[in-house]
Structure prediction request, 344 residues.
Amino acid sequence: MATSVLQPEDCRREHEPKPDIDSPRLTEDERTYILEGKERETGELPPELREKARIELREEPALREQALAQMRHFIEKHPAIRKCRTDAPFLLRFLRTKKYSIPQACSMLERYLTIRQMYPNWFQKLDPLDPKVAAVIDAGYLVPLPKRDAEGRRVVLSCMGRFDPHLYDSCVMARVHSMIVELLLDEPRSQLLGYMHVNDEAGMQMPHVSLWSLTDVRIMLNCIQNSTPMRHKCTHFVNIPHYGVRFFEFAVSLLSDKLKDRVMFHRTSEDLTKHVDPSILPKEYGGTVPLRDMVEELKRNLLKRREELLALDEMCVDLYALEKNDLTQDIHSTAGSFRKLELD
Prediction:
């Protein structure tokens, strides 16, 4: 039986009064946590990162407000979009990923809405209280680390050996990934500084490999690269067993040249820590905080954002009203066949 995402004592913690940010009792980590929580409500970057955003993304207050207005107009007038979030943190996901190119940001938004509706088993019902999802989270399969790396990037750790392929299928795996991604996407610092992925494949078995068809791998990687507003800065793989090498070689071959250059393979955890500061990793990898503590913190954060995660399913796009592209070509072909049958 899956464990609950939040235990009773955690519920009490959730309703405790928040300490003042200027309180001398706060640690630096606690102060940063509070600041980041406030930032994600407004989409505003901290003062020390605004110059970096101006240089790397061309972000300035006037341009940001103009771009947000243009994206809201795009959503309002779009013939296929029936309902969509229009708050600043959500729209800034796309604007910052695309460095304020309005056409590219709007295109990615359209693709994002499209994949959520085309592949609901992967991208919808992101409920941390779902028994299967809760069990996978509790096992420690996928965890965003509490501390960022030296570049300020959010680090996401996956541990394949903690995912039971005999109990859960690829749809559960995909929904866990989608839920963690959605939890992080509204973080302004991450929208600017990007993400590092650390994938520990120790404990990987043949049933893990067979969870995904090659077709689904192609589709998923297309979704990740072209339809998800994340700045992927670096991806590390470690402890890949010999029978998994071909699978990951195939997956990497589907990436863009830019993302291929950002993938690194390591034979051992010791090799990994030459490139990733072990102090930010769980205690099991050389850090100081046990993985279990990180999982418990993740579970509290997911419950706190549960309503937001579930509300994502209210967004809606009319797939048949979209222009034909690589995502919708099968839908248009099917619709065309039905129309031909009707005419005949």
Remarks:
- Residues 125-309 form a domain with the Phosphatidylinositol Transfer Protein Sec14p fold (CATH 3.40.525.10).
- The CA atoms of residues 289 and 333 lie 52 Å apart.
